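Any chance you could type out some protein's one-letter sequence along with its backbone structure tokens so I can compare the two?
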Amino acid sequence: MKMPSPSTRRWIYNVANAGLLITVGYGVFTGEQAALWGLLVNAVLGMAAANTPGHIETLNVEEN
């Protein structure tokens, strides 16, 4: 299986964390269960938030 691109991993990571927050809010998971699932997601995606470049590009501004 090929690893998704860094931007795709970052997107999956963000969606998974948002989903975990929603499940805790609706009482599907407890905070402890969500923390464990979050650790699993982070391990599978290779710590996407820390190890992928951000989506903000630097701008090159020419001085006159």
Notes: Confidence is low (pLDDT under 50) at residues 57-61. Residues 13-49 form one domain. The CA atoms of residues 21 and 27 lie 10 Å apart. The first helix runs from residue 6 to 25.
